[in-house]
């Protein structure tokens, strides 16, 4: 592509970002009162006397014209979802990458590990993007804390100055998000191009799948907050459960129980506990007829020993809390169709993906939390009638 075309494209993109910043975002969540967002808008106006750097400044390039990183470090001052949404929208306007794809990459990074310098559990940054120093600065760069765009580019590092302050700071949310966007833009704008760009960054099929799933969820619902939940069985049904995590199992070899058993009559409806993607559906010799759902927190919800599935559901479908998945039964412990080797119940497990490994944790506390929350909600609704 001729140089003039690149510069023209960047100029047009910067005009889109500037229009977004000056005009604001037509978003009810943003209008709901986020002091953090107002701070961003107040400080994000391009300055006339930007410091010179080796790359075009924000007003001349395809980067978002953004302001003080300190404005992004105070999500407690308002709605963190609205603050992130504004950042994604601003970056999307500047780069042409749909906001939900940027959000998906950011969310995947956030689910890998909770990163906090303070050690108090509160996030230090608005985004979760963490680019390792060898990638950011360049693997042969003798200064692995380099923030100079010129030397980073010389050593083929990915780090970019997205904020226009003359530095490429990996701890700056705007720089980090723009660096990811800059990498993705090299591969094109289609969904398949995005998938290739993600693969070329992570070289991990699991990461590519998760980010594609997250992007699908964000695009479908059109919002970031997908934190709703539901108890897996209707509260009006007959059921009982206790913590059965870690108890021994012998069929198929010595192993521990990685979940909670909810005993209930055959045929009771089994429901989705979350917003998510139906990742698996079919037979497993241990779990019988089972389904698996991936949620936005990168948790895999496993429902086993079903008597059957809801016929309208297929792998890849989006589900919501409380949606019917199938019915409780006693399938499993044998070839496809084996039933009745134990009392009917729902086996429910949760697995957390950490990038290279996926591990199970005890779902009992969450089940009790969801049960109590749903009972309170039903009680409140009944009083309001």
UniProtKB/TrEMBL annotation:
Superkingdom as given in the UniProt entry: Bacteria
Keyword terms of this UniProt record: Signal
Pfam families referenced in this protein's UniProt entry, alphabetically: Peptidase_M23
All copies of domain M23ase beta-sheet core, residue ranges: 256-353
InterPro entries: Cell_wall_metabolism_enzyme, Dup_hybrid_motif, Lysozyme-like_dom_sf, M23ase_b-sheet_dom
Disordered: annotated span: 44-72
Signal peptide annotation: 1-19
Keyword Cell division attached: no
Record-linked Gene3D superfamilies: Glucose Permease (Domain IIA)
Protein's name in the database: M23ase beta-sheet core domain-containing protein
Species for this entry: Paenibacillus forsythiae
């Amino acid at each position: 592509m001729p140089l003039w075309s690149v510069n023209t494209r960047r100029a047009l993109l910067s005009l889109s970002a500037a229009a977004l910043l000056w005009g604001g975002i037509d978003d009810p969540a943003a209008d709901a009162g986020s002091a953090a967002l107002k701070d961003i808008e107040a400080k994000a106006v391009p300055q006339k006397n930007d410091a010179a750097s080796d790359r075009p400044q924000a007003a001349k390039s395809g980067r978002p014209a953004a302001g003080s990183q300190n404005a992004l470090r105070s999500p407690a001052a308002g709605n963190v979802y609205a603050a992130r949404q504004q950042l994604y929208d601003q970056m999307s306007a500047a780069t042409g990458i749909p906001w939900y794809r940027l959000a998906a990459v950011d969310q995947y990074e956030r689910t890998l590990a909770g990163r906090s310098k303070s050690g108090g559990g509160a996030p230090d940054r608005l985004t979760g993007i963490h680019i390792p120093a060898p990638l950011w600065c360049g693997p042969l760069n003798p200064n692995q804390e380099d923030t100079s765009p010129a030397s980073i580019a010389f050593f083929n590092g990915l780090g970019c100055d997205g904020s226009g302050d003359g530095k490429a700071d990996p701890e700056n949310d705007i720089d980090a998000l723009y660096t990811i966007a800059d990498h993705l833009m090299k591969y094109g704008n289609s969904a398949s191009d995005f998938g290739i760009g993600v693969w070329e960054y992570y070289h991990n099929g699991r990461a590519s799948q998760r980010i594609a799933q997250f992007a699908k969820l964000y695009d479908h619902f059109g919002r970031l907050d997908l934190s709703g939940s539901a108890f897996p069985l209707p509260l009006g049904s007959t059921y009982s459960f206790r913590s059965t995590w870690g108890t021994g199992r012998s069929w198929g070899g010595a192993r521990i129980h990685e979940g909670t058993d909810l005993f209930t009559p055959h045929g009771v409806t089994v429901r989705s506990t979350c917003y998510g993607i139906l990742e698996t559906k079919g037979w497993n010799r241990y779990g019988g007829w089972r389904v698996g759902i991936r949620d936005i927190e990168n948790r895999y919800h496993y429902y086993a020993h079903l008597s059957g599935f809801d016929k309208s559901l297929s792998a890849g479908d989006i589900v919501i809390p409380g949606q019917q998945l199938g019915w409780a039964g006693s399938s499993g412990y044998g070839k496809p169709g084996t039933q009745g080797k134990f009392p009917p119940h729902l086996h429910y497990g949760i697995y957390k993906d950490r990038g290279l490994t996926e591990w199970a944790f005890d779902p009992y506390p969450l089940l009790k939390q969801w049960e109590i929350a749903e009972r309170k909600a039903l009680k409140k609704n009944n009083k309001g009638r």
